[in-house]
Amino acid sequence: MSRHAIFESSTRYFLAPILAFLDDDAVTEIMVNGPAEIYVERAGRLEKTSAQFNSEDSLRSAIHNIAQWVGREIDEARPVLDARLPDGSRVHAIIPPSARNGTCLTIRKFSREARSLIDLVRLNSLSEAAQEFLEICVLLRKNILISGGTGTGKTVLLGAIARTIPPEERIVVIEDTSEIQLIQPHVVYLEARHGGRDGHGGLTIRELFANSLRMRPDRIIVGEVRGGEALDMIQSMLSGHSGSLTTIHASSPRDALIRLETLSLMSDVEIPVHVARMQVAAAIHLVVQIARFQEDGSRKVTRISEVQGLSETGQFRLEEVFVSRLLGRDAGGRLQAELAFSGHRPSFAEGPKQEGIAHRIRASKELWDLD
Q: Is the separation of the CB atoms in 224 and 123 below 8 Å?
């Protein structure tokens, strides 16, 4: 019996009180606020359930089992755990005394529904023209930043876009907790590791990124940028590692660029603010904004914006290439939207013709200079 199979069986045993929710494809998130209070997110809405763990000890045992699976520890000295289940679902746990009401466990289930851009079109999260546009941008090696709030589906979208990278390329994926699963044959997955009790033995996202540059990558994918590694990533984009993909927490494309600028200033390399802003503006080509709608829980790409450097006053210049507009509701009450071409052709509109890939364009012809 393999190690994976052993832990898959053991985690299901320890998580028996919430097993029905783990197996229910309609449930996207499970929130345990102590052993006697369990909520789930179903179709974008929170529901309180009657499920309970037998005791604080049984809940804590489940968390220790998950920690063992990923080779991490959780105790009073390190009361927070970021991990994953054997099926890829993301786990976050925090224990007392940091959690005053008892041990908290949050599981964001691994999405089996949306794995590719075609799936996102089927789910009305993306239009066919926008799907093709993103595919062409990947082939043109544009650096793409995916922006959105918590639970909007940034990682799912990142994985879907990354799956369009040509199979002959070497891809290095860097994550704090491994979630992305690609279909290409040559992928190296790197995962951050927390230090031991003495603080030694850990590997941060930033350290992994520095190591990835020595691994001869064709593409570097960072699951989420949230610290000083932002500066390293931006500078690598500017120095030849084009075609990179990452995500960031922000509510708009402009906010995403400002946050990336702020994060780059958190590096131990001191640079002036205006230099950080110039580098961000030069490194990022596209910002893809995704949002979750409270009305029905649907997740949709709301805009795709091209970064066009800085204005005369030193502000980020953005041009919207695609903008979403709501069309109404379907028979089931779910919001319907169209992510439509704004009329602004990207500055690299001649790219497909110059790179010899114009023959691949069908649904997004009006965006490109094909004459």
A: no
pLDDT tens, position by position, 53-63: 999 999 999 99
CA distance 346 to 133: 10
| Count of the separate structural domains present in the chain | 2
Residue with tokens 């920690």: 67
- Based on the fold, state whether residues 11 and 46 are members of the same structural domain: yes
Name the band, by pLDDT with cuts 50, 70 and 90, for residue 3: confident
**Do residues 243 and 362 both lie within one domain?**
yes
| Distance of alpha carbon 285 from alpha carbon 313, whole angstroms | 20
Which of these, 26, 23, 27, lies nearest to 12 by C-alpha position? 23
Average pLDDT of the chain is 93
Residue type, 148: G
Task: Map residue 67 onto helix, strand or coil.
Answer: helix
CA angle 350, 363, 281 (to 5 degrees): 45
| pLDDT exceeds cutoff 60 at 198 | no
